[in-house]
Amino acid sequence: MRRLFVAGNWKMNKDLQSGLDLITALKEEVGDDKDVDVGVFPPFVYLQAVARALADSPIVVGAQNMHQEESGAYTGEIAGQMILDVGATHVIIGHSERRQYFGESDQTVNAKLKAALDYGLAPIVCVGETLDQREAGDTEAVVSTQVEAGLAGLTDEQAEQLVLAYEPVWAIGTGKTATPEQAQEVHAMIRSILARTFSSAIAEGIRIQYGGSVKPDNASELLGQADIDGALVGGASLTAEQFIPIINAREQ
Ligand code: PEP
């Protein structure tokens, strides 16, 4: 069985002190003996403080986005090396909010992903359909295109570094969750694309997180599905009271 990876995407939430208080609570819970990988993804400006606070902890720290270029005239953007410089090791790429509000396409996702891998940053690549696309019966077509175009040109060695997140857009921040069966169906489809694109062995090793209103009361059923290898959690990752039960959900 693949090791679970539960990641908290803080988005544009929290202030420095409440972020550090959350980290203190998470550190008490997540020791080296934990049978699950845990990550936090604070806003860029808190990355260094959070990475320092987690220096002696197995909890990993990542950015919510990065720019694909090394440096240059890209006002307001952050490069991969800058993320590494402040002690973060991971990066979320192609979150639906980036696609929806900041015009990211499968092509920019692909460029960012390759840049992240070049820097040795561990990427979480997000894919998922909108409600209209699901209702039109296009889920499979949309998600396959996102996976194929987003991962285009990767070597097998690069594919082995990947984590994917299936996040149906209609379930993000809405309180609506895909049923475990709906999520499992798409996860299995994504894994079959990975097998076709790389190899069965590589596909079997790649972790696919589910994201979309994961909460303490639905996490264990979702994480119990054969192809769901963790969760990318937004709202419920902002408090220890909600995030810790999700981290522990498969143990129950
Ligand atoms: C997310 O940020 O990726 C997410 C899934 O958010 P939420 O858990 O709030 O739906």
Report on this model:
With 252 residues, the protein is α/β, with parallel strands linked by helices. 43% of the residues lie in helices and 15% in strands. It contains 12 helices and 8 strands. Helix 1 (16-29) links the parallel strand 1 (4-9) and strand 2 (36-41). The longest helix has 18 residues, at 180-197. It is globular. The two termini are 17 Å apart. Phosphoenolpyruvate (PEP) binds next to strand 8.
What key phrases describe this protein's structure?
eight-stranded parallel beta barrel; 8 strands; TIM Barrel; globular; 252 residues; alpha/beta; binds phosphoenolpyruvate; single chain
Q: State the end-to-end CA separation.
A: 17 Å
Counting DSSP E segments of at least 2 residues, the number of strands comes to: 8
Ligands, ions, cofactors? phosphoenolpyruvate
CATH class call: Alpha Beta
Helix tally equals 12
CATH architecture: Alpha-Beta Barrel
Q: Which percent band covers the strand fraction?
A: 15-25%
Q: Can you list the strand order of the major beta sheet?
A: 1-2-3-4-5-6-7-8
Q: Describe the largest sheet.
A: 8 strands, parallel, barrel
Question: Roughly how many Å is the radius of gyration?
Answer: 17 Å
**Which of globular, elongated, flat, extended, rod-shaped describes the shape?**
globular
Structural class: alpha/beta
The CATH superfamily title: Aldolase class I
The averaged pLDDT comes out at: 97
How helical, in percent, are the residues?
A: 40-55%
